[in-house]
Amino acid sequence: MIPSSVPVILATAALTLLAAVVLAWAYWRGFFDNLDAQSRVIFEPKDFQLERPWETPVERLEREMSHGKLVDPAPGEWGGAS
Amino acid sequence: MTAPVAGHAPAGEAGTLGRENVRAVAAARGLAPEDLEIRLRADASSALVVLVLFSVAIAWLLIGSIFGDIASLKLHWPDFLTRQGWLTFGRVRTAHLHAVNYGWATAALIGTSVWLLPRLMHNELKAPLVALAGGVLFTLGIAVGIIGVLAGYTDGMEWLEANRYTAGPLLVVGGGLVGLSLFLTVAARRAEHLYVSAWYILGAFIWFPMLYVTGKWPTWTGVESAAANWFFAHNVLGFWLTAMSVGAAYYFIPKVLGRPIYSYQLSVVGFWSLAMFYSLNGMHHLVGGPLPTWMITTSIVASVFMFIPVVATGINLHMTVVGRFGALRYSPTLRFVVLGAIAYTAVSLQGSFTALREVNRVTHFTHWTVAHSHVGGYAFVTFVAFGAMYYIVPRVVGHEWPSARLVRWHFNTVLAGIAIYVISLTWAGVAQGLALLDARLPFQVSVERSVPGLYGRSLGGLILTIGHVIFAWHFWRMIRMPTGAQPTRPPLHEAQPVLYTDEAEAARPRQGAV
Q1: Residue of B116, B279, B338 best to disrupt the A interface, most CBs of A under 10 A
Q2: Where are the beta strands (DSSP E) in A4-77?
Q3: CA B3, CA B18: separation in Å to the nearest integer?
Q4: CATH code, residues B6-502
Q5: Mutation for A interface: B193, B328, B510, most A CBs within 10 A
Q6: Where are chain B's structural domains?
Q7: pTM: predicted TM-score of the whole model, two decimal places
Q8: For chain A, first and last CA: distance in Å?
Q9: What was the ipTM of the complex prediction?
């Protein structure tokens, strides 16, 4: 019987080393080069143009100035019945 | 005359049905036609798999709720259902745990991941039938595992009771096939950047097999078995359920708000610190157990260090919402996901404190732990899953949820239920722990002092079950509605116009956004 600590040590080391190797690989491949663009990859232009009823007039104006004329959201746009 | 809406169109059909319409609608919305078509193809490719997984998940949620209620009632009503062996506490409680953690939460979050990843990769889901087969096998594995447990067959390790030779292969192969489909999708990605949600989802699908094989390794015995058990049982929360849930929260919160997350740099710190250091945590479940002291101490230190990823993620998710809480009134998705994110911060910080020896000596072996696990498994994971489903299902089936009232009832019941559950059981756990530590008191006192909290637990659990029935009924109505049906007003869904014919599109009354 092997010491009780060995399985957990090996498994933990494997997980930690795997993460470290993938982090180094991702850095080397440039996955962190443009984080600002990465943060916007989930958006389409329409996402910024939708008129959001909870936003203040100032926020809406800012949105309009940055992204063009606002458009009405579709029913259910925010998830769930409207 | 209408063609099928996006959710029911076979993968790739969006491109053949309405390429001209794609251009027209994209132009009207100021989108590049390619972008809109890619997203429609992505959604259509995953629709069937997502719908099957969500349906299965909700079925397990109902089954798991019933088992949970029975187990809870037995704690203060010990003569309840005692004549059948398969309804004894030890079996029913384990069946509940498997049904809700692997059946409900895992299937719901896999479904969410299968829907999210093609969107994040700007591509179709690759090998969707492989993913579907994987989902079916995984579901069979859970069913076989639970039936085995109810029949009295268990591997005797918490969270790993399902038999390794019958349920195990089905779970491994099923999960592996879904993972294969996701990794093929990533390999064929068109997106230039990997969003943080993708890191979490992909990490989860790499970590889970490693954890499962380690936990289920057949040669562990005695103390090493306990160590491997808690290595799995704790890490499956952080590396599987938490990873997919946080990944989903990082998508839905900014998406609904229309603003990038507060600090993308923090999200990177949060993910990689979780990836590298979370695996040390599990041994804090064995404080006072027959393990080398250094193992426990290392685990406690690592648990405190979890403040780093938790605070990084918490700051990010919460600061994205700060100043925009009004959005919660309009978006059920946001309501569930934001509350889930708050619960994530709370349960993680609570977990770090609970790992400390001075706190643990009171809370260990008490109902506190059960309350804590429900803050994580329910208030965090399940709330995020509900929020994701409210967002995804209309985009899969092509029409709105039928009833805003049912959404409100669902939210209010589950919020009330989990609040009653957690408060009652946390209080009961502390009362129980303090009584256990008092050498002047007989053991019976610790039981008596926790009984009021156990009534609260059952009440909370029953309210949760009512909420689940409401949600399941709503989902059933949703998927039973004819394709493209209009519940109360035309569902001007973002994907819908693309799949209308030119004549229908021209004749359709204009409402809202185009």
Answers
A1: B279
A2: none
A3: 10
A4: 1.20.210.10
A5: B193
A6: 6-502
A7: 0.90
A8: 61
A9: 0.93
